[in-house]
Write a structure and sequence with these properties.
alpha/beta
């Protein structure tokens, strides 16, 4: 494989309170899950170097270093909250599959994020598949949100680690294609 172009990118995890944003990051960056729940206050930043990826269309090989901004579930979007989004190349928009209201709220989070970063990439995440009872209506609603924003969606479990890395790699490939 050719020498990879190393690119640092800011990404955000957005979504309602207690959907598992912090747990997804902990699983992805540190390969761990903590049962005790701690509310994120403001923003927490983590870093992870992803494996090199080749874009077959362009022939380029790139390697992202993600600066991952874990943003608290915001009830209102004030000026400071919107500043957290500034400069992000992409976001994982996370909903809790066991709480339908969090799927409905994804529109609000994605709209605000894209207002600040109109050319950013999104991947829609339905988290907590480990306790989800395969309700096709919920999956259909998540699919509709993804279609509305012309993006992909994925079901994950921060607890088991199922598809967590895949979600971040999916976002990396979207960012790589648009870079």
């Amino acid at each position: 494989m050719k020498k990879a172009l190393v690119i640092k990118k800011k990404i955000c995890l957005i979504g309602s309170f207690a959907v598992g944003k912090t747990s997804l990051i902990e699983q992805f960056v540190y390969n761990r899950f903590d049962e005790s729940y701690l509310t994120t206050i403001g923003v927490k930043i983590s870093q992870k170097i992803l494996p090199p990826t080749e874009d077959h269309q362009s022939g380029r090989t790139f390697q992202h270093t993600f600066l991952i901004w874990d943003i608290a579930g915001l009830e209102k979007f004030d000026h400071m909250a919107l500043n957290y989004f500034r400069g992000a190349a992409g976001a994982l928009a996370v909903a809790d599959l066991t709480r339908q209201d969090t799927i409905e709220e994804l529109h609000k989070y994605c709209d605000k994020f894209l207002t600040v970063n109109s050319s950013a990439n999104l991947v829609i995440i339905g988290n907590k598949i480990d306790i989800f009872h395969e309700d096709q209506q919920i999956v259909s609603e998540l699919r509709k949100v993804a279609e509305h924003f012309s993006t992909d969606f994925l079901l994950t479990s921060a607890k088991s680690g199922e598809r967590v890395e895949h979600a971040f790699l999916m976002l990396s490939k979207k960012i790589g294609k648009s870079s």
